[in-house]
Amino acid sequence: MTSRVSPVAPSLEDTGVHQERPTAKVVVAFRFYEELNDFIAPERRRREFDFACATDATIKHVIEALGVPHTEVELILVNGVSVDFAQRLRQGDRISVYPKFEAFDISPLLRVRPDPLRITRFVADVHLGGLARLLRMAGFDTLYDNSLDDAEIERIAGRDGRIVLTRDRDLLKRRGITRGCYVYALKPDSQLSEILARLDLFGSMQPLSRCLKCNAPLLAVEKALILDALPPRVREHQQDFSTCAVCRRVFWEGSHWRHMLDRLAKAGKAAGDQ
Questions:
Q1: Which UniProt keywords apply (predicted)?
Q2: What is the structure's pLDDT at 115?
Q3: At the N or C end, where does the chain have fewer CB atoms within 10 A?
Q4: Domain count, the chain
């Protein structure tokens, strides 16, 4: 009598086929404040909303999944406690996300980066040449080159600790960029007012102290050393001069100088109104 063995169906592991396990999820409550609402879906703005996310996701990844570049965030509170970007979320957490603070110093609360965001060294992307020129005019160290791609901007920002200025949200989500501002305005003068207001920079302006072409600080120079470079009328009426150590251009306080000061004053007034 021959014994029979019932066939056993192979397991998924035996066949080399693996079943994907569903990713564990937690539901948390988010609330974004002030201009951060501009980055998220309209139905989620200025209100608390529930959001399901993977348990292994960091709060940085979840915030960016909702549309907010991490460079726009200065303070995150989870259940009232300040946390950093590496925080993992638990079921029922309540998260408040804030942009840059200008009215008061929150340094003792900071967890997302070691220092406040308000460091006035910039790198502007290819679309913000006009803003870069105006920031230089206002005295701020602003690197701009229309040949820079996103990877190079990321590298420069990390190397020099510069704030990235852009209208490209994806650029601000690059891992190496820790300080950045998304520029909302479309025209250079309005963009300058926006940056002065958002970063509280009006009192830090040093008008016409940098070369608009080279970004280098201007240095005072004796008139006798540059006489040959001056137009006759300027040589006759002007006494105070400065020069760029890079391109050697010479500057004096003529009508164009006064026009630029007026332009900066209007931008400062608009920033104050904001």
A1: RNA-binding
A2: 54
A3: N
A4: 3
Neighbours of 230 (CB within 10 A): 15
Contact 55, 25 (CB under 8 A): yes
Residues 185 and 257 in one domain: no
Q: Which of these three, 58, 86, 109, is where a domain ends? A: 109
Residues in the chain: 274
pLDDT tens, position by position, 211-252: 999 999 999 999 888 888 888 888 888 888 899 989 988 888
Q: Tokens at residue 18, please?
A: 């693996």
Distance CA 122, CA 144 (A): 9
Query: Is residue 153 a part of any domain in this protein?
Result: yes
Tell me how far apart the alpha carbons of residues 74 and 96 are, in angstroms, rounded to a whole number: 11
Over residues 93-105, the pLDDT tens digits come to 999 999 876 544 5
Q: Supply the pTM of this predicted model.
A: 0.65
CA distances from 245 to 136, 195, 219, 235, 249 (A): 15, 28, 7, 21, 8
Residue 100 lies in a domain: yes
Domain boundary at 51, 79, 109, which? 109
Three-state SS string over 21-64 comes to CCCCEEEEEEEECHHHHHHCCHHHCCCCEEEEEECCCEHHHHHH
Copy the structure tokens of residue 17.
Answer: 């086929």
Share of the chain above pLDDT 90, in %: 55
Angle between helices 188-198 and 129-137 (to 10 degrees): 60
